[in-house]
Design a protein that fits this description.
By secondary structure, the protein is of the alpha/beta class. It contains 13 helices and 16 strands. The longest helix has about 30 residues.
């Protein structure tokens, strides 16, 4: 029975590289996500949820600090930068009396940095940096020693399928389903529910490395999608670049139509398998009589372009990369608002920190740059911001972007290229209106100038954007950042 005087439990189910549109309840023609659909039917699904810096480390920094990229310091992807944040989401919840636990992907530095969690059972996937620098697998991963023990082999690895960790070739998982990394995250999360301290509320983050490559779904899930027809990837009339052939020698990006579609099907098979893991977690809560005391949140760090606009993976401003799923399901005993809502407020990962702290009944730290979503969930506010600024350092394609959910403006900082999309009429961002609508382009350009006016890279001068400035993936390397 729920104790109305005790703060609620919080379960955050966090995926890696899950596109915002890839939910069957969102109308996707291929995705099969019945359990997430059921979760959305009893909560709120956000259609305009984003990550402000769409790659693994930066997105997680935003989630766990409640800060925008320029403040927490990660404006692109960089391993090996120490996380030195005085205030983090698990620390704030711990101070509010919560038992805090994370299972799965953290992608912090040092690798075993718990950033305030009481305990972490770690699996970051194939972590190049860790494998090069940490030596024994147990130093950078808890799943791999477990796998080797179960198989009775000191040399077994989750790379035995032959796949690299960033490519789009496919090999179904060859071992029992319960040994898959996704199953491991779920099982360890359920184990935490069994052995938690029942006198404290808990914050559990079940953090899955998938659907991020390797594309290795269990065979039963791969079989569901092997012959499913696919619509072609979105292709903008503004695209003038070729698809890269690989993301490292171990991670090819096939462009043969047959191989490309095999990779896309395997991605949706990964989603279906993770959807089943969500149901395992919900069943575990139900069996422990915790559903009426627990908020359940499903989201992801970023999406996957899946060949849209001749691109794969992330780091770009487009919907497949910067858009994320977000479902928030309150416990029925603690929240009386209508269920099955769909919300169009523009929200970002940094907003979860103040939301969770407010749920805990604790003071929200004043320095946070996110905003609590509870007023939006209650229907008391239309949104939390007028527009959102995002960015990512990505070589010649380094970019900044702004959106209010209706339009999106993109500026490429190395070339000065501008893109403008009408998201209401063109949600797949196929038609560049920057020249056709000069007044709107100028309005958004002015807003970006305001956002970038004080940046150390020197992106603005005399109230103009300046292209070609040197960029970095971590502002700590130029002496700023690390807020909180």
């Amino acid at each position: 029975m729920a104790d109305s005087h005790r703060p609620p439990n919080i379960l955050l189910i966090f995926a890696d590289q899950w596109r915002a549109d890839a939910l069957s309840c969102a109308g996707h023609p291929v995705a099969q996500t019945p359990h997430l659909d059921a979760l959305a039917s009893t909560g709120t699904r956000f259609r305009q949820a984003y990550t402000a810096c769409p790659s693994c480390i930066a997105a997680r920094a935003g989630l766990l600090t409640g800060l925008k990229p320029a403040t927490h310091g990660f404006v692109g992807y960089r391993d090996g930068v120490n996380w030195r944040y005085a205030h983090t989401l698990p620390r704030s919840l711990g101070a509010a009396g919560y038992q805090t636990h994370c299972v799965g992907k953290m992608h912090t530095h040092p690798i075993r940095n718990r950033v305030g969690f009481d305990e972490v059972a770690l699996h970051d996937g194939y972590l190049h940096y860790g494998r090069r620098t940490a030596g024994d697998a147990g130093c950078y991963d808890d799943y791999l020693p477990w796998l080797r023990e179960r198989l009775g082999s000191a040399y077994a690895d989750y790379t035995d399928t032959g796949l690299g960790c960033n490519g789009y070739s496919v090999a179904p998982w060859t071992r029992p389903e319960e040994l898959h990394p996704m199953s491991w995250v779920t099982s360890r999360s359920l184990d935490f529910l069994r052995r938690r301290d029942p006198t404290q509320p808990f914050f559990l983050m079940a953090s899955y490395h998938r659907p991020h490559p390797p594309l290795d779904p269990p065979a039963a899930y791969w079989d569901r999608f092997r012959d499913v027809p696919l619509d072609p990837p979105a292709m903008g009339d503004w695209v003038d670049w070729e698809l890269g052939a690989c993301r490292g020698l171990d991670s090819p990006v096939p462009n043969d139509p047959v191989q490309r579609d095999i990779g896309r099907r395997a991605y949706f098979a990964q989603l279906a398998f993770l959807d089943a893991q969500v149901n395992r977690l919900i069943m575990g809560l139900s069996e422990a009589e915790l559903l009426n005391e627990t908020w359940i949140i499903f989201s992801a760090d970023h999406g996957d372009l899946l060949y849209d606009h001749n691109l794969v993976a992330k780091a770009q401003p487009f919907a497949g990369s910067a858009g994320i799923p977000l479902i928030i399901r309150p416990p029925a005993a603690r929240w009386s608002n209508p269920r099955g809502n769909v919300c169009d407020a523009v929200v970002e990962l940094r907003d979860l920190y103040p939301t969770f702290v407010e749920l805990a009944g604790a003071p929200v730290p004043s320095h946070l740059e996110g905003a609590s979503l509870l007023p939006v969930l209650a229907g008391d506010a239309e949104g939390v911001r007028e527009w959102l600024h995002g960015e990512h350092t990505d070589g010649v394609r380094s970019n900044h972007w702004l959106t209010d959910g209706h339009e999106k403006y993109c500026w490429y900082s190395q070339t000065g290229r501008e893109l403008l999309f009408d998201l209401d009429a063109d949600p797949t961002e196929c038609h560049n209106l920057a020249t056709a609508r000069p007044d709107r382009t100028a309005l958004w350009r002015g807003r970006l100038i305001t956002e970038l006016a004080d940046r150390p890279e020197g992106f603005t001068q005399a109230n103009e954007l300046v292209a070609g400035r040197a960029v970095t993936s971590s502002l700590e390397w130029v002496g700023v950042g690390r807020g909180g």
